[in-house]
TrEMBL record:
Residues 329-465 form the Fatty acid hydroxylase domain. Residues 3-91 form the ORC6 first cyclin-like domain. It comes from the Eukaryota. Residues 94-184 form the ORC6 second cyclin-like domain. Belongs to the ORC6 family. Keywords: DNA replication, DNA-binding, Nucleus. GO terms for cellular component: nuclear origin of replication recognition complex. The keyword Membrane does not apply. One of its GO terms (biological process) is DNA replication initiation. This is Origin of replication complex subunit 6. The lineage of its organism: Eukaryota, Viridiplantae, Streptophyta, Embryophyta, Tracheophyta. Component of the origin recognition complex (ORC) that binds origins of replication. DNA-binding is ATP-dependent. The specific DNA sequences that define origins of replication have not been identified yet. ORC is required to assemble the pre-replication complex necessary to initiate DNA replication. GO terms for molecular function: DNA binding; iron ion binding; oxidoreductase activity. It comes from Hevea brasiliensis. It is found in: Nucleus.
């Protein structure tokens, strides 16, 4: 909307100077900051600029009409008015009477006036003659502090933050001036009994040092009487900006997270929620358990190798052919599978062993990769270490080949527990015994099926513990292994 049009609606079209001033203020707003940050729309901004200009030219301004025109509540308009005025730095004088009316304590007015003039007098008296002429007390902060201290002395409650906002200063400046006033004019503003002799108290000259000329430059040279970077408006603007930046980065990072999460979410066999709810053990405990388990096995393996390391040098140099290697690998796989199947099945069959040893592994109803080797140390020893030693010895593989074999078996076991059905996973292509297959065993209904691990499913098939399942896509993303036949409860 055009400024002159708004001015016409407010009955201000007579004064061309006023409109010109308002236009100048509006341009200044546009240059200095984005007024939409403080919630001041274009029309409201124009109206407020007109009001400021009207005050400057001492033209009567119909505030109620202006509020109606702005379409805002009175409170919102006042807030916008103060914000804009403070940020433009056009507030040069704070009228004591106006403050008294606004804060509902008109009877304080004479006290504030007296207190202020006394303060000025004493302040000037403490200054060297050369500086007295340039001392400037027109800054609103002085009036506001005097007003606040008087109210306090007369036991009237005043909203300090609102006062700081109205006078367009900062809390720190307010506090400085307040201390200075209390020190110099204890008889007027002080509350406590002990009185300070004003002659002994040094006035705070810094208050004046930070005054007009200096601040004008810092603030772009425009009527910067409220100066200081710390004006409440600027502080709020800065806080708004920080809040906005935080919000922005949180949105971006959660977006990124969702993208990353979304990818795996589409291939999970169980939801994250299931993982948290169904598992009977915390991840920290799992990590500790796995580390303990691995240390024990490492010690046992070192001892085992030390005892059996009597191979002659010649053996090490001889490279077995690929066929021999393949045969050794398959033999080792079959041996390990056989040992593990019977031991595993027996652990489920024998209630004592299950309760005290194997149940630890089944605390993970929804398994995850690093929980693959979360076992009772004794189970690690019985199933993995002895099984490993047997497959090593019976296959006749070299220690070097065994490194590859055991690494392969471990990676396979980790994959079986990873809980993800990722596309292109070669284990899922070559092995029927895979993530979904072993996942069935980890479910409460699956504890009588799919004992085979880690490579083949033959023993389950031969001995009738094979549970067929179909992998179906879930609605919310991910897969679900649906059992293809009734399971037995007992
Ligand atoms: Zn089991
Ligand atoms: Zn398992």
């Amino acid at each position: 909307m055009d400024l002159s049009e708004i001015a016409k609606k407010l009955g201000l079209s007579e004064s061309k100077n006023l409109i010109r001033k308002a236009a100048e203020l509006r341009r200044l707003c546009d240059v200095q900051f984005d007024s939409s940050i403080i919630g001041v729309g274009e029309v409201c901004k124009a109206i407020i600029c007109l009001e400021i200009a009207a005050t400057r030219f001492q033209v009567i301004f119909d505030r109620q009409a202006a509020i109606r025109l702005s379409g805002m509540s009175e409170k919102a308009y006042n807030r916008s008015f103060n914000s804009l005025q403070n940020s433009l730095g056009v507030k040069t004088k704070l009228d004591i009477r106006e403050l008294g009316i606004q804060f509902g304590c008109v009877r304080l007015i004479p006290f504030v006036r007296n207190g202020l003039s006394l303060y000025k007098e004493r302040f000037l008296a403490s200054l060297p003659a050369s500086r007295r002429a340039t001392a400037d007390f027109t800054r609103p902060v002085f009036t506001a502090v005097a007003f606040y201290l008087c109210a306090k002395k007369h036991k009237l409650k005043i909203d300090k933050l609102k006062l700081i906002e109205v006078c367009g200063t900062s809390e720190s400046e307010f506090k400085c001036v307040s201390t200075s006033m209390k020190d110099l004019c204890h008889d007027v503003f002080g509350i406590s009994k002990e009185k300070k002799d004003p002659r002994v108290v040094k006035c705070n000259r810094d208050l004046l040092d930070a005054l007009p000329e200096k601040r004008k430059f810092e603030n772009g040279g425009y009527l910067s009487d409220d100066g200081a970077e710390h004006s409440s408006y600027k502080k709020r603007k800065r806080m708004d900006k920080v809040a906005y930046e935080e919000w922005k980065s949180s949105v971006i990072s959660s977006n990124d997270k969702n993208k990353a999460k979304g990818y795996f979410e589409n291939y999970r066999l169980h939801s994250k929620q299931d993982e948290d709810e169904k598992n009977l053990v915390s991840k920290t405990t799992v990590v500790k358990g796995v580390l303990l388990q691995q240390s024990i096995q490492a010690v046992v393996a070192i001892l085992l190798f030390t005892v059996t390391a009597n191979d002659s040098e010649a053996d090490i140099d001889q490279q077995p052919s690929l066929i021999v290697l393949a045969r050794q690998f398959v033999t080792a796989m079959l041996v390990l599978d056989t040992w593990q199947y019977f031991m595993h099945r027996y652990m489920h069959h024998n209630k004592f062993l299950y309760r005290h040893i194997h149940s630890q592994h089944h605390r993970l109803v929804v398994p995850y990769a690093f929980g693959a080797l979360y076992n009772h140390p004794l189970e690690g020893l019985l199933l993995d270490t002895i099984g490993g030693a047997l497959s090593f010895l019976l296959s006749g593989m070299s220690p070097r080949a065994s490194i590859f074999f055991f690494s392969f078996a471990t990676i396979k076991t980790v994959d079986d527990h990873c809980g993800l059905w990722l596309p292109g996973n070669l284990f899922h292509v070559f092995f029927q015994n895979n993530t979904a297959y072993h996942d069935v065993h980890h479910q409460l209904y699956g504890s009588k099926y799919n004992f085979s691990q880690p490579f083949f499913v033959m023993w389950d098939r031969i001995l009738g513990t094979y549970m067929p399942y179909s992998l179906e896509k879930k609605e919310g993303g991910g897969f679900e292994a649906r059992l293809a036949k009734e399971y037995k409860d007992n």
